[in-house]
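Standup notes
- DV: blocked on the single-chain target, sequence here:
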Amino acid sequence: MRVAFGRFTFDTETRELLDAGARVHLSPKAFDLLALLLDRRPTVVSKREIHDHVWQDTFVGEANLSVVIAEIRQVLGDDSRQASFVRTVHRVGYAFSGPAQTLAAVRPETRTEERLCWLVRNDHAFPLAAGENVVGRDPRCDVWVEASGVSRRHACVDVGTDKTTIADLESSNGTFVAGERIAEPRILADGDVVELGAATLTFRAWSDERSARTERVVRAPRDG
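- DV (later): unblocked, structure below
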């Protein structure tokens, strides 16, 4: 889905929100919620449906929804009292109310190779979006890690087209990769162990190129 509204372009294929052509940051939850509202526009989406879609089987309070809505409005420069894009329907839910136009999808040959990355903790995978992903104890972070010794905004993982790096955000207890405390941005490799306070996460990376290499099987010639 590619939708243009105001000076913004929203693209679910590339998971990007562009402001006059420049990419702006939205947390994964905020991106998923905005995608839902745009897809259902101008229908009102109930709070229950939003929770089921964005948080799925995870129990969260209504305050989490308010935080994500506030993030979307801040990025869009929207005013809750005179909403141009996100309209509140009290006691019911939210709706996308501004004029919007569906755009044609980007042709496949214009896309770069897809790079898929995750941080994994206790068998739970946190997908990383292209660009900066803030990791910390604040629920508004892209990767929410609730553990002792983790700062509210602890570290930042930057996913680029050819490499992924991690940097410490002046956290109280530091960021460790492979047991070594980092003082400057460090490139992450698939399988690297990242330690934030008492939390241990594993970085995993995948790409179309790597998948193709893995699928190739070299067979030994048969005798005779």
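- Follow-up: The helical segments are 28-40, 47-54, 62-76, 208-215.
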